[in-house]
Amino acid sequence: MQIYLVGGAVRDKLLGVEVKDRDFVVVGATVEEMLARGFMQVGRDFPVFLHPETKEEYALARQERKQGRGHRGFSFEFSAATTLEEDLIRRDLTINAIAEDEHGNLIDPYGGIEDLENRVLRHISPAFAEDPLRVLRLMRFWARFFSFGFSIAPETLHICREIVASGEIKELTRERVWNETVRALLTDAPEKYFEGLNAVGALSVILPETSHFNLEAMNNRLTQYKKNSSDAHWRLAIWQWKEDGVFESLKRNLHLPNLFVQAISRFNDSADALQNWRNISAKEKFSVLHKLGSFKKDTAVFEILSLLGIDEKIREQIRAEIQVASEIRANNPEFSQYKGAELGEEIKKAQIAAISAVICKEKI
Ligand code: ATP
Ligand code: MG
User: Which homologous superfamily is 1-118 in?
Assistant: First the structure.
């Protein structure tokens, strides 16, 4: 059997970026031989093995046959006779189809090295169209490597448009779409993921309501604010900001985890007010800080302030306001004559008054 390093590890090494995980392909071996060598079989759809010591992934070389619709409509063929070239041709992009043997020799039957040098994302063969997830993967790679100067080959954009026109994007599960999206949000240029999907018509399939959205403004805001947070949930919050209906669409069409739903709701409840903090009333301030749980030691307000790049003076002021309002408690003697809803109202009034006093102090 021969073992080759493939995929992202070879690509990233050639690009000079840190290699995170390494994938291997094994040519000329059977499942039985792998098990006999102590590899552990994992993977539901096709045999992937974990190396007995390093626990890195080793897959048997395979060919694919498209059977049904969508991402899962494949059958796989394994045979010890499957060649490296046959395995590489079923991959998505030329830059992801370079192999390295154990002596460090590169095997590159589909021009991946040249495309890496020319900074081109290009599909390998027409079989690219057989898996609609590849459209999303492509745009995610564009976002990830945008700062290296990568562009997408015109013929690859063309095949993506054909995939979209075929209706296959709709077959992708919300989970798979979400998985690509969240990974794209963590790249250096997440706005390119959305821009790329839009350019081939896929965004309005994934989020059917997007035709009403001002995508350019959304992407511009993401470009402007992304440096302030590397969290996917805050970046998505920025993207949907100020565009009515986007949050609803995200919730409806993607598998948005609770963390994202919470973060985006809180962001929408507070971002405009935080940006305008000097000009809003103490009552409005109270309402925002109350919703964010700031009086109960929740620190979301400071995360949102950082995300918006709001200056230290305002941050200090808000810290002081939270401090004074939190010191007002139900068991303070001044509230002894109140109970229930009335008590709640009195505390709130006192908290608002305390917040206004902080403003006065700043103005003196
Ligand atoms: P990353 O650094 O994000 O892991 P990667 O290129 O290694 O990038 P993986 O998802 O780990 O991506 O996949 C490993 C390799 O398997 C890819 O480089 C590609 O050759 C191939 N591959 C993965 N998913 C697909 C797919 N949906 N269609 C075709 N080839 C794929
Ligand atoms: Mg990988």
Answer: Beta Polymerase, domain 2 (3.30.460.10)
